[in-house]
Design brief:
Blueprint: H1 2-39, H2 46-61, H3 66-82, H4 86-100
Helix pairs in contact: 1-2
């Protein structure tokens, strides 16, 4: 087990550095190619591009393993859905329509 970590840790560090370099370079090239000509903004440096990449990750991607939690939630909900009777499923749908505003429930008329 210890031998595995000896090779895995440096590979992970190289992977992280490679991701930062490639991501920063992509952001740099796209910014300097598009934004100065479209909006009249100045060109940026590599480190500014890495900062923008980090900012986007924080604002839009979050921190942590969110994809893992979402997939686990979906699997758990799919299991619950399979064990529901058709009446329970319809009651669940009605409740979601009422809470989330997905349009009028099937019992209401469109004119009201």
């Amino acid at each position: 087990m210890r031998r595995k970590w000896i090779f895995l840790a440096p590979a992970a560090m190289v992977g992280i550095l490679l991701f930062i370099f490639i991501g920063g370079e992509i952001v740099l090239q796209l910014w300097n190619w598009l934004l100065p000509s479209l909006f009249g903004l100045g060109q940026i440096t590599f480190w500014q591009a890495v900062g923008i990449l980090a900012l986007c990750r924080i604002l839009f991607g979050g921190i942590g393993r969110h994809g893992f939690h979402r997939s686990r939630f979906r699997g758990r909900m799919a299991g619950r859905w399979q064990h529901m009777t058709p009446e329970e499923r319809e009651r669940f749908r009605e409740g979601m329509r009422g809470r989330c505003g997905f349009g009028p429930s099937t019992g209401e008329s469109k004119g009201q």
